[in-house]
Design a protein that fits this description.
By secondary structure, the protein is of the alpha/beta class. The protein is 44% helix and 18% strand.
Length: 280
């Protein structure tokens, strides 16, 4: 059965996400909730949100292959899929050298993790890879439903679509901020992305798609911040979402920066519902 994601998803932190938040996002028209910050292998955070809602898809973004035991993930997947067969996606990723002890050969590690999930009966069509570079993108094309990415731009989305072809999912994630004061919005955006820009995987990918050392050096260039964190009013953010879809995205996940993230996401969802959001 095909999972219906719609065009918009919302990111919540796995350890803090509540059923009430998921219900509010479902009512606002979002197609998916993506659980960030290395969800646990028991997938209880995803199960809690699925049990509380009726339509919205829940995905992990992402299960860390160095931390979440693959056999436990498979067992958890089957437990939840028996209740919500067409509403659960497993996003998995190799983490980062700066954070994960024992980090080495990430593509080989992810491939081995996929082997375990496959042997345990988890369908490849229910798995997404956090894939930035070309080798991980090719693995996603060959062995998963597609790719789930953060800290990317429409240029990366275009390249990912070229590698994955027309039949795999390409799902970028973007920061969003409702603030018409450009300079203030950029400073909030800088604070939001600063920790990630110090991670080699993210910085290296941004260099690969055309950003320079000047862009990636504190305080970070305006053009980089504007690309990573969509800001302005709801219409400006919808225009940024359209740019990702035009570049080949199937669905765009939104991280709300600043205060009242659920309120921000609901406001954007309401505006998006009245707009024509497609890949043309």
């Amino acid at each position: 059965m095909t999972i219906e994601l719609g065009r918009l998803g919302a990111y919540l932190t796995a350890a803090e996400a509540t059923a009430a938040q998921a219900v509010a996002l479902e009512e606002a028209g979002y197609g998916a909730v993506w659980l960030a910050a290395s969800p646990a292998a028991d997938l209880l955070a995803a199960e809690r949100l699925l049990d509380a809602t009726s339509r919205i898809v829940v995905g992990t973004s992402v299960l860390n292959v160095w931390q979440a035991d693959a056999d436990e993930v498979a067992t958890s997947y089957h437990r939840i899929a028996r209740k919500h067969a067409d509403r659960l996606l497993l996003g998995i990723g190799a983490g980062h050298r700066e954070i994960n002890a024992g980090y080495a050969s990430p593509v080989a590690k992810v491939a081995s993790y996929l082997d375990t999930l496959h042997a345990a009966g988890v369908p490849a069509g229910r798995v997404l890879l956090a894939a930035l570079g070309p080798r991980m993108l090719r693995l996603a094309a060959d062995r998963a439903a597609g790719t789930l990415t953060l800290q990317v731009t429409p240029e990366h989305t275009r390249r990912a679509r070229e590698v994955l072809g027309p039949d795999r999912l390409v799902i970028p994630g973007h920061g969003v901020l409702l603030d018409n004061d450009v300079e203030r919005a950029r400073e909030t955006g800088r604070a939001a992305v600063r920790p990630m820009l110090g991670i080699a995987n993210y910085a290296g990918n941004l260099r690969r798609i055309g950003y320079t050392g000047e862009d990636l050096t504190e305080p970070f260039s305006d053009r980089l911040i504007d690309a990573l964190v969509l800001h302005g009013d709801e219409e400006a953010i919808v225009a940024g979402i359209r740019a990702e879809l035009a570049a080949g995205a199937d669905h765009v996940g939104l991280h709300a920066a600043g205060e009242d993230p659920i309120g921000v996401l609901r406001s954007i969802g309401k505006r998006a519902a009245g707009a024509v959001i497609d890949r043309s």
